[in-house]
Design brief:
With 353 residues, the protein is of the alpha/beta class. The protein has helices spanning 3-38, 46-57, 64-91, 95-103, 169-174, 200-209, 225-238, 267-283, 296-300; strands at residues 107-112, 115-120, 135-137, 143-147, 151-152, 155-160, 179-187, 194-196, 213-219, 248-251, 288-293, 310-314, 328-335, 344-349.
């Protein structure tokens, strides 16, 4: 190869390199400026940044110093925006969970055992469709759902067990409570024995005599499908002499006992257990439903596998954070209702939709 050809080739390669570097610089500047434009906390107007972007894209030369300046600006403004958002959340007393959730609005975030889990939003599960302002709490601590901000469409209810002791159901009915989920029984978290709730019969009779509609629930600690079916059979047997208007609920929660028999039950096994219980309840002619908190429907269950059953979600803040469809919302565990001396869980039934 002669020198002329060699230098011609080198010249061509240099030009190509310059063009490539220029294109990379252009892309870098563009991305930096777009980040600045989209940052809500920036002090510069979008129009000014857009004008600067147009000015630079029309040039043939991209100063390295300016590229670095814009990069640093975008990074600092992004950092400032995040820090301001964290500060606002803490000053408003929203708590760590709410603060973190506000930073990742496209994720479903669950805290458990000292760590956080980030779940992608499901494209299969149906969203509930409520706006954050659709629900409001009155001076007595009751949550209401207002359709289009006007008519109250939520139905108030409670759920009770032996923890509430003896209940004056006449006063409960007079207070406007329209339904109650009554605990049939539970399986022991450690020993695994099924037992009847001490106040099941009294609560069933008292609610029925005072015109309060009834649903029931069973607190599960099943470790396999056979035990889940056994629990369903127990519930069906106890309901033999009653008519109920509301669902039969599978109450799935993570036990607080360190020696709980369900400690090592997998997510797939919990899901299989839930389906086994619900299918047996359905076969018996009742409507099955699943109760749990956000942890239940993310860490314990594959929600997409049980989406055919109704959902009763427990979440104790406003607005509602759980994004998927639900029929009942337990919004408080410290409610006060005439006729009940202890705290009681408060619920709202929402319209289908």
């Amino acid at each position: 190869m002669n020198n002329e050809s060699y230098y011609a080739k080198r010249h061509t390669q240099s030009l190509v390199a310059i063009v490539a570097i220029s294109m990379i610089a252009l892309l870098t500047i563009t991305l930096c400026i777009v980040l600045v434009v989209r940052n809500a906390a920036t002090a510069r107007s979008e129009a000014a940044l857009a004008a600067e972007l147009e000015n630079y894209t029309a040039q043939d030369v991209y100063p390295a110093g300016r590229v670095q300046e814009l990069t640093n600006t975008a990074r600092e403004e992004g950092r400032t925006s995040v820090l301001n958002q964290i500060r606002r959340s803490l000053e408003n007393g929203e708590g760590t969970n709410n603060m973190i959730r506000s930073l990742f609005p496209d994720k479903l975030i669950v805290a458990d055992d000292g760590r956080y889990y980030f779940f992608e939003m499901s494209s299969v599960l149906k969203k509930h469709g409520f706006d954050k302002d659709d629900f409001g709490k009155d001076e007595n601590g009751f949550v209401h759902y207002y359709e289009n901000g006007l008519q109250d469409k939520g139905i108030p209810g409670i759920d009770v067990s032996h923890h509430q002791g003896e209940i004056d159901w006449e006063k409960v009915a007079a207070a406007g409570i329209e339904y109650a989920f009554i605990r049939v029984g539970a399986r022991g978290a450690v020993e695994g024995q099924i037992f009847l709730d001490d106040y099941f019969e009294a609560n069933m009779a008292g609610a029925k005599e005072n015109g309060i509609k009834i649903g029931v629930y069973f607190y599960t600690q099943a470790i396999d499908e056979a035990e889940a079916v056994e629990e369903a059979e127990f519930v069906i047997e106890q309901l033999r002499d009653y008519e109920i208007e509301y669902p039969v609920v599978y109450d799935l929660e993570q036990s607080e006992y360190t020696t709980a028999r369900t400690k090592n039950v997998t997510k797939s096994q919990h899901t299989a257990n839930t389906k086994a219980f619900c299918e047996r309840i359905k076969q018996a002619g009742y409507t099955p439903m699943i109760y749990g908190n956000i942890k239940t429907f993310t860490l314990l269950l594959d929600a997409e596998e049980v989406m055919e059953y109704d959902t009763w979600i427990a979440y104790y803040n406003l607005p509602q954070y759980y994004p998927y469809e639900f029929q009942f919302w337990q919004y408080s565990s410290t409610g006060k209702v005439p006729g009940i001396e202890t705290n009681v869980d408060l619920n709202i039934q929402v319209p289908e939709g």
